[in-house]
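All the exercises in this workshop are built on plain-text protein records. The record below serves as our worked example for the rest of this section.
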Amino acid sequence: MKVVKAPNEVLRAKTKPVKKVGPSLLTTLKQMVKLTRSFHDPEGVGLASTQIGLKERFFVAKNGQKFQAFINPKIFFWGKRTKKYFEGCLSIPNYWGQVQRATQIKVSYMDETGQIVTKTLKGIPAWIFQHEMDHLEGKLFPDRVLEQGGRFFKFTGKDPKTNEDIFEEVTL
C-alpha cells in the first residue's frame, strides 16, 4: 500500500458509502494506520481512502496518541468559531497553506464494529476530521487555500543552526 500523490485523479473522486464492515475493510484500515504512522517529517495524522486509491467513504485519523477509523463519516454541525491552521497533506508532499476551519464540529460515523457513533470534536481532532472529509469529497487543501485567498509555502529544508523548518512562499 502506498500514498497516492497529486495530480492522480482518484484524489478528486467523490466516495461512495461503505456497505459492509468486513474482514477486508478491517485489514485495509490496519494497513492505513501502519502507513500513516510511517510518516515522521511531517508526521502523518490522517489518511483517507482516496489517498490509497479507493473510492469508498472511510478514513483513519489520529486522536491523541491513537488512530481511529471513521467509516461513512458525516459532519452535521459546524461551530461558529473558526481558526486558521497550517495544513499539509501526505498526497501533496512539502507544500503547506493556511486553511480556516471550524474549531468545533459534531459528527457521526461507523466504527470498526459497525456501531454508529455521534460525538463532538474540538481543536486538532476537529481540524483533522474536516481535512479528511474533504478528501472523501474530492477536495484537497489547496482548494481551500485558494477559496480563502491564502498563500502557499514549500518546505525547503532545515536550518542547520536551529534545526527549524524553512519554508518559502510559492504559487501553485
